[in-house]
Give the backbone structure.
Amino acid sequence: MLSKRSALIRKVLTPNTFRIGMSLYPPFLFAGVRVEHVAPDWTAVRVRHRVSWWNGNHNGAAFGGTLSAMTDPFFGLLALRQLGSGYVVWNTSASIQFRNAGRGSVTATMRLTTAETAAIRDATADGGKSLTTHSTEIIASDGSVVAVAEQQLYVRARPSRYRSGTAE
């Protein structure tokens, strides 16, 4: 059953449908976060948050929780899409360091290269786990760094009875 469902999701969930769906995801939609671009090979996602009077903090800057949320799911989802449904992927920890007030429009680009994904695949080939750390800068429209977000990913290959294949 998992393999049929996974095959359907892989067929329907293109980078463009993912971009639209995530932009309409209520926590992003109501916070003013939009997914602007998803690379065709699932190696990068760019998101933007437009700070306004209704979604900023008491100082008129980006709310820290929104800055963290705008990076939260993407490293794990990029890994899952590149690795395929034969893997379990979890974010095990996340941190954010605030550098400057984010006003106007702020952008973050999460990248997970094919080389990083290959290293994860190699580390889990013998049934072991992989713990990797990934970070991105959240950048204001003037080019200043608003925050640096970091996440740790846990990846393990699923037992063979649950595997439905790897990435296309």
In short: The first strand starts at residue 33 and ends at 38. The mean pLDDT is 89.
